[in-house]
Amino acid sequence: MDIVYIRDLKVDTIIGIYDWEREVRQTVSLDLEMAFDIAEAARTDNIEHTLNYKAVAKRLIGFIEGSEFLLVETMAEQAAAIVRDEFNVSWLRLRLSKPGAVRGSRDVGVIIERGDRPASGAAAFSGG
Ligand SMILES: Nc1nc2c(c(=O)[nH]1)N=C([C@H](O)[C@@H](O)CO)CN2
């Protein structure tokens, strides 16, 4: 399985359950791993044949900047659905972090996996 990824995509948004959190924008950070077969893009050297990580990032920035969720769970689930539905991604792992939200920790948040993980290509090389 090949993966196209985005690491530490920072977006400012309204997020949180407390009154003060409804008043100020906070920064969330996304890590995304998206299953995508890169063989055709590598063969043709053509952006049209791969998952454009810049296009994914722009879509998620727009979505998250305009959102006002209470929970990181809701934001993560809806961001994952956008990537799967609009970018034809069959499997992804998404980490959504809220830096500094809990005193004493660097960040807190959720990690979700959605979809069917493609079989690893490694199996083709095993069995002698
Ligand atoms: N599982 C979760 N726990 C908590 C969340 C959350 O979104 N998911 N949110 C908060 C507060 O908004 C917190 O981030 C403020 O510091 C608390 N726990």
UniProtKB/TrEMBL annotation:
| GO cellular component assignments | cytoplasm
Pfam families assigned to the protein according to its UniProt record, in alphabetical order: FolB (PF02152)
Its protein name is: 7,8-dihydroneopterin aldolase
In which family does this protein belong, per the annotation? Belongs to the DHNA family.
The cross-references to InterPro entries, in alphabetical order and at most eight, read: Dihydroneopterin_aldolase, FolB_dom, GTP-CH-I_C/QueF
Q: Tell me the organism.
A: Microbulbifer donghaiensis
Q: Which reactions fall under this protein's catalytic activity?
A: 7,8-dihydroneopterin = 6-hydroxymethyl-7,8-dihydropterin + glycolaldehyde; 7,8-dihydroneopterin = 7,8-dihydromonapterin
Domain Dihydroneopterin aldolase/epimerase, by residue range, is: 4-114
Signal sequence range: none
State the superkingdom. Answer: Bacteria
So, what pathway does this thing act in?
Cofactor biosynthesis; tetrahydrofolate biosynthesis; 2-amino-4-hydroxy-6-hydroxymethyl-7,8-dihydropteridine diphosphate from 7,8-dihydroneopterin triphosphate: step 3/4
Q: Which Gene3D superfamilies match?
A: 3.30.1130.10
Task: State one molecular function term (GO).
Answer: isomerase activity
Q: Which UniProt keywords apply?
A: Folate biosynthesis, Isomerase, Lyase
Q: Report any one BP term from Gene Ontology.
A: tetrahydrofolate biosynthetic process
Instruction: Tell me which EC number(s) this protein carries.
Output: 4.1.2.25
* Chain's role: Catalyzes the conversion of 7,8-dihydroneopterin to 6-hydroxymethyl-7,8-dihydropterin.
